[in-house]
Structure formats: C-alpha cells, structure tokens
Design goal:
Blueprint: H1 7-36, H2 52-58, E1 65-69, E2 74-77, E3 84-88, E4 91-99, E5 107-109, E6 115-118, E7 127-135, E8 141-150, E9 155-157, E10 159-162, E11 168-169, E12 175-179, H3 186-191, E13 193-198, E14 203-207, E15 212-217, E16 226-232, E17 237-239, E18 242-244, E19 247-254, E20 258-263, E21 268-273, E22 276-282, E23 295-298, E24 301-309, E25 320-329, E26 336-340, E27 357-360, H4 371-377, E28 384-388, H5 408-412
Parallel strand pairs: 2-8, 9-18, 11-19, 20-28, 26-27
Antiparallel strand pairs: 1-3, 3-6, 4-7, 5-6, 7-8, 10-12, 12-15, 13-16, 14-15, 16-19, 17-18, 20-21, 21-22, 23-28, 24-25, 25-26
C-alpha cells in the first residue's frame, strides 16, 4: 500500500525553517548593532557614546608620552646635563640607563613622575642605552628606548694620589689628590670622589689651591679603619673643555696609633702608641734663625739614605750631605726627621740643625741600635710628629700633608 506525503505537513516544515532563518538574521542584526554602536535612526543609541566594544579596542594604547634626550643615535653628547627623560600625560615608573659594559647609571624619578635625571655625570667616549616606561591615568603603559654616545675629549686631566692602593698607613694620613690641570669646577670634581670607611666616620674634602684636594676626618683615624676611595673622574669637566679620564678604586687601612711629640726646648721626643709613651729619644731641632716649624706634621716619605742639599730649600751653599740616613719627610719645603752622624753632642742638649729634627745615627746607617734606626723602623707613612715650643710659627696646612693644623670648621668651609 502506497502512502503519499501530506502536503500540509510539508508546508508547516518549510514555514518553520523560514521562521528560524528570520530569527537567525535578526540575531545577527542585533549583534551587528551591538558591535557597531547605535545611531538616532536605528533607535539603538543616542549617537554620542561609544559602545563597550569601542572602549575595549582603545584600552591597549596609553596616553602617556615618553621623551628621551638626547635623541636616539646622537653622538658627541656632553657628559653632564644632556641626559634627561620626561613623561607627558602620565608618570614615569621605570628608567634604566646602562653603558656598553652593562653598568647601570644611578638616577632618580621626580616626585611628580614627570622627569628623571642621572645622579652623576656620564663617562666620556661611551655608548649608553636608555629604556623608559610611563603610565597614564588609566594605568596603561608606554615605553621608549634610545641609545647615544658621549663625546671624546681633546684635553684631559688625571689625579695623582697618596696613599697607595693596598697600603697600611698611620692615623694622620689624609687621602690627597693632586691634579695635572688646575680645576675651575671644584664642586663637580669633588662630587666625583667618594670616600667610605669601616667603621663609618664623617670624612670631608678641602681644596688647597686649584690643583690639590685632601680628605680627612675631624680627628685622627681610628686604628684599624678601612678606607675606600672611588675616583669616578672619567667624563668630569674639571675646567672648560678639559675632562677627567680616570676611574679607579683605592683602598687602604689605618695601622696602629703612633704619635711622636718633639719638645724643642727640652730637646726630647716622646714616641707614643695608643696614647702610651713607648720611648723617649734625645733630639736636636732648628738652631736660632733656622727654627723648626711648630705643629702637627705627617710623615709622607721614607728614605733609608738620601741627599740633602741646602740649595734646594733656599740655604745656598750652607750644606750638601749626600748620605743622610733614616730620613722621613714632614713638609714639602724640606723639613725631615732624620738620622744625624755629624751632630756631636747636640742630641738632647741644644738645637743645631737647619730646621730638621735630628736623631743620633752612624754614617751609612748600618747600626740598627741607634735612636734614628729604631725610630725609622717603628714609623710608617701617615704617622704624626708634633713639634712644640719652637720659636717658629705653626706650619702651613698645605705644606705637606699637614691639614691637621686647620680647624674642622675651616676645613669643611
């Protein structure tokens, strides 16, 4: 028996399909309206406010603008004042500056986040990489990168210093730097030299003229103090067009506390260690007309044997001794404490020298038992020798390493 399909049912099925298609198209139109936003004609919006989809599309772009100076690829950039990073319509959150060795340059973001400046000058003839990030009010980030190269100076200076790296010195030893060119920007140069100590103590610098800078604490160093000096002079403009070319770290240690006091009236020297007298030595100091300086003087050099010629210190033709034993320099002008084999009975009795402090010795300095040999063997660079009761004035603080003859207030000023 054959069964024919019922036409009415077929019509209902096609109708349902048409209705489903219409619903689907309506859904698509609704979706398109939601994504595209409405307008006054469609009746789906007021035409003034973007839809949610538009906000999401814009959320990846920050309003913040980062600017790096100097511009990317710049050459012969000045080592000071040229590097700046700024942010507009936002706040800086990160600034990283590194040289071509990967060393990071310290700096600080301003309190309002609008700018960053380096904490120090830049090195000369060096390539730097800058990476900076800022955020806008919505927390969206913007980043900028740049690289540049600093200038290569035509004229340079360095600092020669004392004491030597790795040395052990006496409690009176300042750190003294003499520059090969006169400095007209002393603040910039001094800022580039950092002195740290262990244990910590306040250390201040003082300029003698325009080519020498000494550092010391208020009082003699504490025994055992470790001192580290970082000379970051590379790129510092010490005078117009003249740049430092030195980057070096120097460390030294303070040894035992030895201070020796010479009395020009009693003709005796008391050697003290840690405040206790360990030896009293007969001496002779400057005779009338050639008196020894008063004041605190620091041993700056030691010579087992040296030549002393009066012509070099303004005493023309008065003496020329080619083999002075156990000599230790106290001033640049020629004051020494040294062995004396020609003084006869002057030691402990009267003053007979041309301004030096003489201790009994033998010619050639071979006898280790004489006072001059004992003092030489028990002294080190940086030990203090104090002269009192002489008829001469107090030694000038710049004459040798003798800044202890200046008050702390004047030293810091």
């Amino acid at each position: 028996m054959n069964v024919r399909p019922i036409r009415g049912a077929s019509v209902d099925a096609r109708g349902r399909r048409r209705r489903l298609t219409a619903v689907a198209v309506g859904a698509l139109l609704l979706a398109a309206t939601a994504c595209g936003g409405g307008d006054s004609d469609s009746g789906s919006g007021d035409g003034k406010s973007p839809g949610k989809g538009s906000t999401a599309a814009q959320s990846g772009q920050s309003d913040a603008v980062v600017t790096i100076a100097p511009k990317n690829g710049a050459a012969s950039v000045d080592t000071s004042g040229a590097l700046k990073v700024t942010a507009a319509k936002g706040r800086l959150t990160e600034v990283v500056v590194k040289d071509d060795k990967g060393t990071r340059i310290d700096g600080a973001i301003s309190a309002d986040g609008s700018g960053w400046t380096p904490a120090t000058h830049l090195a000369a003839s060096t390539k730097y990489q800058v990476h900076a990030v800022a955020k806008d009010a919505e927390g969206r980030t913007a980043a900028e990168d740049a690289s540049f190269t600093t200038l290569t100076p035509q004229n340079t200076f360095v600092g020669t210093f004392t004491p030597e790296d790795g040395s052990t010195v006496g409690v009176g030893m300042p750190f003294s730097v003499r520059f090969t060119r006169g400095i007209t920007h002393p603040e910039d140069v001094e800022k580039a030299i950092k002195v740290t100590t262990e244990p910590a103590v306040d250390v201040e610098g003082h300029w003698f003229g325009n080519d020498r800078l000494d550092f010391r604490p208020e009082k003699y160093w504490q025994e055992g103090t470790k001192v580290t000096v970082r000379l970051n002079l590379d790129g510092v403009e010490g005078r117009p067009g003249v740049y430092g070319k030195q980057a070096k770290t120097v460390s030294f240690t303070i040894g035992r506390n030895q201070v020796s006091v010479v009395d020009a009236k009693t003709h005796k020297m008391q050697v003290t260690q840690d405040g206790k007298v360990v030896k009293t030595i007969p001496v002779t100091t400057g005779k009338p007309g050639y008196a020894t300086w008063n004041g605190e003087m620091v041993i700056s050099q030691k010579f087992t044997v040296t030549r002393m010629n009066g012509d070099t210190v303004g005493y023309d033709g008065e003496y020329d001794i080619k083999d002075v034993p156990h000599a230790m320099r106290l001033t640049d002008s020629g004051t020494f404490v040294h062995g004396n084999y020609w003084g006869g009975d002057a030691f402990g009795n009267y003053n007979a020298s041309h301004g030096c402090i003489g201790l009994r010795d033998v010619r050639g300095g071979y006898d280790g038992g004489v006072p001059a040999a004992w003092f030489f063997d028990h002294s080190m660079i940086g030990d203090v020798v104090v002269v009192k009761n002489s008829t001469d004035p107090v030694v000038d603080p710049s004459n040798g390493l003798n800044g202890w003859n200046m008050s702390w207030e004047k030293w810091k000023a």
